[in-house]
Specification:
Layout: E1 3-7, E2 13-17, H1 22-31, E3 39-42, H2 48-58, E4 63-67, E5 70-74, E6 82-83, H3 85-88, H4 98-105, E7 107-111, H5 124-132, E8 136-140, E9 143-147, E10 155-157, H6 163-174, E11 179-183, H7 189-200, E12 204-206, E13 212-216, E14 224-227, H8 232-244, E15 248-252, H9 260-268, E16 272-276, E17 279-283, E18 293-294, H10 306-313, E19 319-323, H11 332-339, E20 343-347, E21 350-354, E22 363-365, H12 369-381, E23 385-389, H13 392-397, H14 401-407, E24 411-415
Parallel strand pairs: 2-15, 3-14, 6-7, 10-11, 18-19, 22-23
Antiparallel strand pairs: 1-23, 1-24, 3-5, 4-5, 7-9, 8-9, 11-13, 12-13, 15-17, 16-17, 19-21, 20-21
Bound molecules: ligand EPZ.
């Protein structure tokens, strides 16, 4: 199992390019199932989760061609509507094949994802929405079995804001008979990126990016080419690493347009931030001021940046209150940060982080993707060496992590 060895204390300096967004790429890959014509995606990040999704689609009969960051998928030969447990258990986002499969082929058997480190991660809203559109759904032997001769448009309301739930239902509605309205829809930029691609494929969608999305079903969709938006969470992660290490970095191939809440907090912490069309520059103060955060659906502060902010608060001046409102168990990184010397008290979904003058390197264990990112940031700040174990979590969501950090002057290497 790979580990990341970090010698802390070096401020990050220099320029590095960001990659395409994992959480836009995953639904965009499943959108290929909605048509028999080729869909080409560019700026596709080279991540383990992308590899898993391509494997899942290929075993369904989708032809996959990949050249660098360009992927062409052709679902003309779709001949198997099953997403098996072996693949789904390694990546929950596999559930995103459910809506497209029912819409395109009238049937799907998708393994229930099962929980993960950060929570139970149910898909009841995905199921409720498809049922409202006329799908017959049975959940048996750990699989969701959905059937529909043709989905019909409906008025849908999700009990809570769900990103992949909104994406699944929006994709299914593209081929339904009539109009679908999704209320309480997720407003994340990745939902908008998906909608833009679906429209390029011939879908009729309005309201993406707001909490009411209207979709007029069409008989079929055609092929298209779409460039994936930059990864706002990767961008936020590198901004935090620079902020915590007193650095000065310029991130290119990205946009601040989707990071208002994160950038506001980094400015409150004392950072100088310059925004340009496709780059962000951050100059950190010698020491950050503590910043409290409360996670919530977009455009509020993203839960995927919570662990990174717990890490930067660990050595900031003051005390921060971190409230996690999206997932029920997303503080797994706290006990690992405490091993590095952080002062963190957990009380339910609240973490109180008292900034320390320093952290001391230690061996820590990654538990989930963004928790691992928080530990890497803390390791970059800690005195001495930090060894982050189980970094396969990181490889799921951060492309060329050690190369990008090393390009910014970090002393980091991967050890077997
Ligand atoms: C997406 O997960 C992201 N993943 C997550 O990023 C992100 O943390 C999350 O949205 C919240 O922003 C992808 O886009 C692939 P949700 P998703 O459905 O869609 C509950 C990362 O690190 N819920 O918005 O699975 C759920 O339990 C990952 O890149 C139900 O109860 O999250 C959670 O408490 C981690 N029933 C809340 O809603 C449902 O049917 C929000 O979940 C669906 C969700």
């Amino acid at each position: 199992m790979d580990k990341l060895l970090i010698a802390g204390g070096a401020p990050l300096k220099g320029e590095v390019a960001m990659s395409g967004a994992k959480n836009a790429a995953l639904p965009l890959l499943t959108a290929a199932l909605l048509t028999g014509e080729p869909l080409t995606l560019t700026n596709v990040p080279a991540l383990n989760d992308i590899g898993t999704m391509l494997k899942l689609l290929a075993q369904m009969g989708v032809k996959v061609e990949r050249a660098g960051d360009r992927v062409t998928l052709d679902a003309g030969g779709l001949d198997n509507s099953v997403a098996p447990y072996e693949l789904v258990k390694t990546m929950r986002a596999s559930v995103l094949v459910l809506g497209p499969l029912v819409a395109r082929s009238g049937e799907a058997r998708v393994s229930l994802p099962g929980g993960c480190a950060i929570g139970a991660r149910p898909v009841d809203q995905h199921i409720k929405g498809l049922q409202a559109m006329g799908a017959e759904i049975a959940v048996e032997h750990g699989y969701v079995h959905a059937k529909a001769s043709r989905l019909r448009g409906a008025r849908l309301f999700t009990d809570m804001v769900t990103v992949t739930g909104t994406e699944n239902l929006m994709m299914a509605a593209c081929l339904a008979d009539g109009e679908t309205v999704i209320e309480n829809a997720a407003r994340e930029p990745e939902v908008v990126d998906l909608a833009n691609c679906l429209v390029a494929m011939g879908a009729r969608i309005s309201g993406a990016g707001t909490d009411v999305i209207r979709i007029h079903g069409v008989a079929r969709l055609h092929g298209a080419e779409h460039r994936i938006m930059p990864d706002r969470i990767e961008t936020g992660t590198y901004l935090c690493a620079a902020a915590a290490t007193g650095g000065d970095v310029r991130l290119t191939g990205t946009s601040a347009a989707y990071l208002d809440a994160v950038i506001d907090k980094l400015m409150d912490a004392g950072c100088d931030i310059e925004l340009s069309r496709d780059a962000i520059r951050l100059k950190a103060p010698p020491r950050l001021a503590s910043v409290s955060i409360r996670t919530a659906p977009y455009p509020a502060f993203p839960t995927d940046m919570q662990a990174q902010f717990m890490a930067i608060n660990a050595t900031a001046a003051g005390t921060a209150v971190i409230r996690e409102t999206i997932f029920e168990n997303r503080f797994m990184h706290a006990v690992e940060l405490i091993r590095l010397g952080a002062d963190i008290k957990i009380d339910g979904n609240i973490a109180i982080v008292k900034g320390m003058d320093r952290l001391d390197g230690a061996t820590v264990m990654a538990t989930d993707l963004r928790a691992s990112a928080g530990l890497v940031i803390a390791g970059l700040v800690a005195q001495g060496e930090t060894l982050v174990d189980r970094i396969y979590h990181l490889d799921r969501g951060y492309e060329k992590l050690e190369q990008k950090l090393a390009a910014l002057g970090a002393r980091v290497s991967r050890v077997k």
